[in-house]
């Protein structure tokens, strides 16, 4: 597994640089509740329809669900009034998704070791496996962010294959 790109200081500068060459096509805040994973997924897929193949949309569906769910479960976004922000961008051959949460004093995004019987803990492993790049940022004022990128169409950066996982809309 590849290590995510991380930035502990200067997160705002890193985030700005991460958007170089990309056009933001949408930004939306969602309440810090479990149902927001489905709402964020539907919203992002509507935005990206026409920007990506059906295969890419399936992969995006899975990864957005996982990252938004993690933001709700493992950050202060789940507190009353908490938010999860999703930003979507596109570039020449890239789709960029960024999920920003309210941060956490006790938790940071990390790939967990799981076994066949584990009921959770696979989300960032899937991000690591299916995205062509991903990373995390933490800023005491802004919160935490997990971002990932996919190419518009499947290509060699995805050696493990894609798919088959579907979520109800």
Please give a structural write-up.
The protein has 169 residues and is an alpha+beta fold. It has 4 helices and 6 strands. A 6-stranded mixed beta sheet has the order 1-5-6-4-3-2, sandwiched between helices. A hairpin with a 3-residue loop joins strand 3 (83-90) and strand 4. Helix 2 runs antiparallel to helix 3 and helix 3 runs antiparallel to helix 4 (123-130). The protein is globular. The relative contact order is 0.22.
List keywords for this structure.
disordered N terminus; 6-stranded mixed beta sheet; single chain; disordered C terminus; alpha+beta; 169 residues
Summarize the structure.
The chain has 4 helices and 6 strands, in the order βαβααββαββ. By secondary structure, it is of the alpha+beta class. The N terminus and C terminus are likely disordered.
DSSP strand tally: 6
The first-to-last residue Cα distance is 30 Å
In helices, the fraction of residues equals 25-40%
Please give the count of helices. 4
Mean pLDDT across every amino acid position: 77
The 3D shape can be described as globular
Q: Sheet with the most strands?
A: 6 strands, mixed
Structural class: alpha+beta
* Major beta sheet, strand line-up: 1-5-6-4-3-2
pLDDT < 50 runs, ≥5 residues: 1-11, 156-169
Query: C-alpha Rg, in Å?
Result: 15 Å
Task: Please trace the helix and strand order, writing H or E for each element.
Answer: EHEHHEEHEE
How much of the residues is beta strand, in percent?
A: 25-35%
């Amino acid at each position: 597994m590849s290590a995510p790109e991380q930035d502990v200081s200067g997160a705002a500068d890193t985030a700005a640089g991460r958007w170089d060459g990309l056009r933001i096509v949408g930004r939306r805040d969602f309440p810090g509740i479990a149902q927001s994973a489905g709402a964020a997924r539907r919203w992002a897929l509507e935005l990206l329809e026409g920007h990506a193949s059906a295969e890419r949309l399936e992969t995006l569906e899975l990864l957005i669900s996982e990252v938004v769910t993690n933001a709700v479960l493992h950050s202060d976004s789940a507190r009353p009034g908490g938010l999860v922000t999703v930003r979507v961008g596109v570039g020449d051959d890239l789709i960029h998704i960024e999920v920003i949460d309210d941060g956490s004093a006790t938790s940071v995004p990390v790939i967990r070791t799981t076994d066949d019987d584990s009921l959770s803990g696979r989300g960032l492993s899937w991000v690591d496996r299916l995205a062509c790049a991903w990373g995390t940022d933490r800023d005491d004022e802004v919160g935490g962010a997990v971002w990932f990128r996919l190419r518009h169409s499947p290509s060699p950066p995805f050696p493990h294959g894609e798919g088959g996982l579907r979520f109800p809309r």
